[in-house]
Design a protein that fits this description.
Distance between the termini: 7 Å
Radius of gyration: 23 Å
Strand content: 5-15%
GO molecular function: ATP binding; hydrolase activity; RNA binding; RNA helicase activity
CATH architecture of the largest domain: 3-Layer(aba) Sandwich
Shape: globular
Family: Belongs to the DEAD box helicase family.
InterPro entries: DEAD/DEAH_box_helicase_dom (IPR011545), DEAD_box_RNA_helicase (IPR050079), Helicase_ATP-bd (IPR014001), Helicase_C-like (IPR001650), P-loop_NTPase (IPR027417), RNA-helicase_DEAD-box_CS (IPR000629), RNA_helicase_DEAD_Q_motif (IPR014014)
CATH class of the largest domain: Alpha Beta
Helix content: 25-40%
Keywords: ATP-binding, Helicase, Hydrolase, Nucleotide-binding, Nucleus, Ribosome biogenesis, RNA-binding
Strand order of the largest sheet: 3-4-2-5-6-1-7
Number of helices: 21
Protein name: DEAD-domain-containing protein
CATH superfamily of the largest domain: P-loop containing nucleotide triphosphate hydrolases
């Protein structure tokens, strides 16, 4: 079975080693961790590991910041980077007039024809950093298939395609999204029409290449982009990448972009260039803190068996710094108003909680995401789920509802942790601490984007101390503790306990456990 976006959960979202049943009362299946290893064809090797030695009782380290290399000497306008007037106009239409650091560093080398490895914090505009050079060079010699962009998740692929479409509108750009969960015949027909830019997950593009009867190929590719490169350069994607490196032309530009600098990325940056090629241009952030300065990061110490009550309290009583970011749900369409009168009356009842500001809750398993979504809905909070057991249509629908604030809470596994750019996310909650510390950076990067403020709150149970230490060591920042009023939390204990039972009954009635077993069997075959 080819790996598509769902492998993000299979490899980075492992079970707690000491329990097969979650602390929240929902059953969980098993997943496996992945280790980094070499992928020949672009020279990737072992991943690093870090050990932590401190704990909560130690005084907080001061938060340091430092500019990236040569940041003070980078160009301050797109014109000075050599970006064409047509693309500058497209950027202005998007209210983008000044390049970010990653854009200012990488656009010119890419326009010069160099390979590039770009490292920047989440929300810093990495997509535009590689999209502009691709579009500018394409405008000089338009043909398809010109560029292939690989991503680890389906949702990110759709988002990148949308950004290409907006920037390349004046060029009559044609893009194709090639990901799992969609009709392969329709995708093959799209590729037969030779779109200029293909945005794909590795598994599906390889499947289509292997079943292709010669109607299209990647022999004229000029650009290969690995977005979220740290995730792509893992064993999960190794077979697909090895296959692609064999069929792609050697005379191409290759770009890697990542928010987390791993040993695999560093090995590649230090590797000698192929014969006849220049060493890739490397832009790496040198700031000791991996997360952005506008992000406030906290943890809540909570017994695992009452996490649900604390989560409900946090959502109903968000910190004052983000409470003002609550937004009213959009007005329903006239056709929908009639059928929603009874529901609206129910929402006006005194016990109905006030909806939280836009919040993403991350957990490690699809079952946990489904469980928490059901639990929050039972408690009167509008929530929707994003995980690999949903169909692609359901996943896109969930994202659409959250973007439009029809629902203010998105409960997601790590398929939603990378690259998704959703404006005004006020808070990220880690229901489960991530197994791999670098995933923390990607999760909390869904808030405090593009200079905005945001909050990250991690639930720390009796089993999470080692994971918290690893996260703190990686981001070079101590998480601050916040304490919720216990009396207020316990007020809703009975209601939350009832909601827990109902959520578990719903999962049982929908045979979610059976679906998990089937999915596991497919992965192992």
């Amino acid at each position: 079975m080819r790996h598509d976006s769902d492998e993000s959960e299979a490899s980075t979202s492992a079970v707690d080693e000491d329990s097969g049943v979650s602390s929240g009362g929902e059953e969980e299946g098993e997943d496996s961790d992945a280790e980094e290893r070499s992928v020949h064809g672009f020279g990737i090797d072992e991943d690093d590991s870090s050990n932590s030695l401190s704990r909560f009782s130690k005084p907080a380290r001061p938060t340091l910041s430092a500019p990236s290399q040569n940041a003070a000497h980078l160009p301050t306008s797109f014109a000075s980077l050599g970006v064409s007037s047509a693309l500058q106009h497209a950027l202005a239409q998007m209210s983008i007039r000044t390049p970010t650091e990653i854009q200012a560093a990488c656009i010119a080398p890419l326009l010069e024809g160099r390979d590039c490895i770009g490292n920047a914090k989440t929300g810093s505009g990495k997509t535009i950093a590689f999209a502009l050079p691709i579009l500018q060079k394409l405008s000089l010699d338009p043909y398809g298939i010109y560029a292939l962009v690989l991503t680890p998740t389906r949702e990110l692929a759709f988002q990148i395609s949308e950004q290409f479409a907006v920037l390349g509108a004046s060029l009559n750009l044609r893009t194709a999204v090639v990901v799992g969960g969609m009709d392969t015949i329709a995708q093959a027909l799209e590729l037969k029409n030779h779109p200029h830019v293909v945005v794909a997950t590795p598994g599906r593009i390889v499947d289509l290449l292997e079943s292709n009867s010669g109607e299209w190929n990647l022999s004229r590719i000029k650009f290969l982009v690995l977005d979220e490169a740290d995730r792509l350069l893992t064993p999960t994607f190794a077979p697909e990448l090895s296959y692609l490196f064999k069929v792609l032309p050697s005379e191409r530009q290759t770009c890697l972009f990542t928010a987390t600098w791993t040993a695999a990325v560093e090995k590649l940056a230090e590797a000698p260039p192929r014969p006849g090629k220049r060493k890739p241009f490397v832009h790496r952030i040198t700031a000791p803190v991996e997360t952005v300065e506008t992000l406030k990061q906290f943890y809540i110490l909570v017994p695992s068996h009452v996490r649900e009550s604390y989560l409900y309290d946090l959502l109903c009583h968000p910190p004052e710094s983000i409470a003002h970011m609550r937004r009213a749900a959009p007005d329903p369409t006239p056709a929908a108003k009639k059928g929603k009168r009874k529901k609206a009356a129910k929402d006006d009842e005194p016990d109905t909680p006030q909806q939280p500001p836009p919040t993403i809750i991350f957990c490690n398993k699809p079952r946990t995401a489904a469980y928490l979504t059901s639990l929050l809905r039972t408690l009167g909070l509008r929530a929707t789920a994003l995980h690999s057991r949903l169909t692609q249509r359901e996943r896109l629908n969930s994202l659409g509802l959250f973007r439009a604030y029809v629902v203010p809470v998105l409960v997601s596994t790590d398929v939603g942790a990378r690259g998704l750019d959703i404006a005004d996310v006020a808070m990220v909650v880690n229901w489960d601490m991530p197994v791999e510390s670098e995933e923390y950076t990607h999760r909390v990067g869904r808030t405090a984007r593009a200079g905005r403020g945001g909050l990250a709150v991690s639930f720390v149970t009796e089993r999470d101390e080692e994971r918290v230490l690893k996260v703190e060591e990686r981001i070079k920042t101590k998480l601050e503790e916040i304490v919720l009023p216990e009396s207020r939390v316990l007020e809703k204990l009975n209601a939350v306990s009832t909601a827990k039972r109902m959520a578990n009954m719903e999962l049982h009635d929908t045979n979610f456990g059976r679906r998990e077993q089937i999915h596991k069997m497919k992965r192992t075959n």
